[in-house]
Automatic annotation (TrEMBL):
Protein family membership: Belongs to the universal ribosomal protein uL18 family.
Keywords, sorted A to Z: Ribonucleoprotein, Ribosomal protein, RNA-binding, rRNA-binding
Subunit structure comment from the entry: Part of the 50S ribosomal subunit; part of the 5S rRNA/L5/L18/L25 subcomplex. Contacts the 5S and 23S rRNAs.
GO CC, any one term: cytosolic large ribosomal subunit
GO molecular function: 5S rRNA binding; structural constituent of ribosome
Pfam family, one: Ribosomal_L18p
Function text: This is one of the proteins that bind and probably mediate the attachment of the 5S RNA into the large ribosomal subunit, where it forms part of the central protuberance.
NCBIfam families named in the record: L18_bact
Protein name, entry field: Large ribosomal subunit protein uL18
Amino acid sequence: MRANILKRKLALRVKRKRRVRADISGTVARPRISLFKSNRYLYAQAIDDVTGVTLASVDGKKLGFNSSKAAATEVAKAFADTLKAKNLTQVVYDRNGYLYHGVVAAFADGLRANGIVL
């Protein structure tokens, strides 16, 4: 029974992801920030969808942060510094099918607090 519940949750997230991605696309000037969260860590990347290239990325595991709200803010700060180094200040935020609360919202707020326009 537990496996069925996990499959259903994943199917619902993929459904939300497809619905959101139908409207969101990144360019070189305004890349798409794609967020992935596991139970332990948080990952994000800036993607140019026109050419299909990853412009910048951040790995919470390598930085030593877990997947909590406080850690999401710190990961967002590190990612904002990476984006600023590449002269990217305006981005499109892709929550990747996750609901906008908790860690996902904390990451977005951390980006905004560090000068990235979503």
